User: Fold this.
Amino acid sequence: MLTELFETNRIIVLTVYGQVFFVLGLAIALQSLKRSTLALARPLPWLAGFGIVHGFHEWGYLFIPIQSGYLPLPATEALLILQLVIKGASFAFLLQFGVELLAAITRLPILPRLRLLPAAAFLAWVGATLAVSAGFTGYVPDAGAWLPEGRIQEALAHVGAPLAVGDVLARWMLALPGSALAAWGLLASAATVRSVARPSVLLGLRAAAAAFAVYAVVGGLIGLPAPFPPASVLNGGALLDFIGIPIEVLRSATGLVIAVSIILALDLFEQETDRALAEARRRELLGRERERIGRDLHDGIIQSIYAAGLHLDEASAALDPSAKVPRTRIRTVLKELERITGDIRATIFDLRSASLESLDAEEIVRSVADELRANTLVGLQVRVDGDFTPDLTSEQAAQLHRIVHEAFSNILRHARASQVSVSLTCTRAKLQLVIQDDGVGFDPESTSGRGRGGRAQGIRNIRRRAELLNAELSVGSAQGRGTRLSLTMPVATTRRPSDHRTPARSP
Assistant:
């Protein structure tokens, strides 16, 4: 009776089976992951691809038998073969998800080669299917275990062997390892976000890991009946005879758990967005406070120091020409006041530059440059070239901002430059920043050791930040010949509109 119930409602079972995986893929695809810094974000699109493609594959079991009543036999056979290829592609996406997730969580050094594994496995599956099925020409699998009786049987007489062999090998070579890696990676992800994620997110990740472990059995180990062991014994038909429940029902239930669990886990990215908004608000308030402090320093203390200097100038002019000692002391005080004013201006520059937040490389450079221009008499020229614009992550933008700020701070404090030129060039996959001044220069070797000078520390800071960006950094300088700093970093890019041109800008 149980078997009859499921067989009678086979259309509902297959519809639900395809639906749960399609909903899984759609839910992930609609989630904004581009700006996320979480390790789980990068692999998830592969899981979305698996869900959507596998959903279409399962719906093929509904539509191909219907179409077989209207289409010529070769067309029906072609549809069955296409469905098999789609099945292999969906499982390859699942394996890619598992590999990417494992690499993201464990940060394996073999990542570039590891990412090629699913593609290699897919090609190996194609070759193995062709080779193995050639030895079983004429084999027709038990259609009742997966396709209804009818005209579809004529097509199975011609392509039954590759369909059965391809199904079994796709599950063994792609779905089984993909599900196992996904279960491992999701369980590890739960451990990495345990301190910041809500209990519902942790529950979703752990439940999804358990469901993928089950799917490794029902979706990866048990396939169609095939003319070789163990698939000739362990298959969907044998399971139906043993427990009276079609394997599609078990896969549907497992897929439903996966879909619900992943949707629960996606709340992790909503939490990340909430934290980012809170952090943005905090930075905005901090930026306003820094701006207020900088304004008070500029309008209050600097003006008071300037007024004190005028009074000392007047006092010096009123002294008797023979009073050399008082004049000398007044000049010393005036120089000290000038130094203090310069330090305060540098502090104002640091305060205002630290409050700037942007993901646009050009805006980052121009904003910090404008602060330098506003607080000094240095002539400045900024030029942006290239046919592409960089798409910086928040981490790349933050590090680039600090590098530019550190470079300009060095110029302000040590270079005694009168002109600074900045060039920003973006190619297809790289962003190059060049900052050059006409200052007094320095010996680059003096900044490579453990020197404690301000310039040496600044260059070391820039080098450390360049390493975090996987960027190439070169610093060229000589005494009396200025300094040239060049930074080349890998970035994602977007082609610039053909009518967009950014001219050089100078004060």
Observations:
- The first strand starts at residue 379 and ends at 385.
- The chain has a mean pLDDT of 80.
